[in-house]
Amino acid sequence: MDIIQIATHLIDEDTDQPRYQFDEEALQELMKSIEEIGLLSPIKVRTTPGGRYKIIYGNRRYKASKMLGKETIPCIVSTVTDEMEIYLEQIAENLTREGFSPIEEAEAFHKLMNESKFNSSIKYLANKLGKPESYIKNKCELLKFGNSVRKLIVSGTEIRKDKLTEDQLLPIKDLPIEHRDPLALIIARDALPVSDVKKIAKLFKDKEISSGTKDKLLYKNGHELLQTWSTVQQNKAERERAAELAAEKAELAAEAKAERARRAAEAEALAAAAVTLAANGALSPGPTTSVIGGGDLFAAAAAETAAAAGSTAAAKAAAAAREEARRLLAALPLPSGLADDAASGEELQALIADIDGTLAALAQRAAAWQSLRELAVAATRER
Predict the structure, then answer these.
(1) pLDDT tens track for 138-190
(2) Which candidate among 105, 192, 247, 285 keeps its CA 20 to 30 Å from the CA of 52?
(3) Phi, psi values for residue 349, rounded to 5°
């Protein structure tokens, strides 16, 4: 495109352009640069009725040149008339320039998406400007804040006192306005880093903290809010640990209860086994009328079985086994000695054979009772 010199007094600023904030210090530096080496980049204008021109982009260069008293300014004259294309060009140009604030971007995007003469979508703007949709969405989120906060928002990521960056504000953007804006002012005043802002945001998003308590927290400074966050986190961790311990205790209690039930069932089974043995004749007295020794061995086994059972049904079963054992012992008195005039050899041999058979039968039944006793004793010790 051709660059032509246009008289300064014929050029008008575009009051609807996206950029309207101009840093005075930066403007003075630009003036000094133009005065020393001239205007290196022309501004872009479009024609308007009456032989005049309106700036598309280059407002800062125009202002600096006008303040220096320049009679003409190098310009590129555009033939574009479509308002959408002009506005997009203004945004694209300013995105490459220093000092285009996040709020100016947000307002420009909002204008394109909401004014009837544009009625654009986020997807369309993202494609036209070469930006991710999330970039445009995040910028528009800044419009949730009030004017007292907006005027503190600056571009870049440097944390400065009484200034706010986009990164500092995004963590608190979804808070209620009665908490959001006062918090933003605290963040700016205390120049809080983003990591601290995220902690404070979690504090105000905590549903366990009442709204009234959050209102009172706004009287604290940034350091005090961080201390409060730390205390809340510690208390929450302690409550979670206590809940874990309670759950573990309840689980152990449930396991113990299940174990007791299992042992009671085993005891009942042992008692039932004793009854079964009696019913099957395993506890019936042998063919002999006497054994060496005595004592309440079977009664003790039955008593321990009843104690281990821990239930009425098991106790009754064990009592039945005990009664059977007593009847068995009653039928087995101590043997008497042999008379001096002993029987014949054949009779003695028959007696020996009978005794051996009786002892074998008794040994078999005694083994069954001994096994039952050991199971009952083991179950009792486990309780």
Answers:
(1) 999 999 999 999 999 998 889 999 999 999 999 999 999 999 999 999 999 99
(2) 105
(3) -65, -40
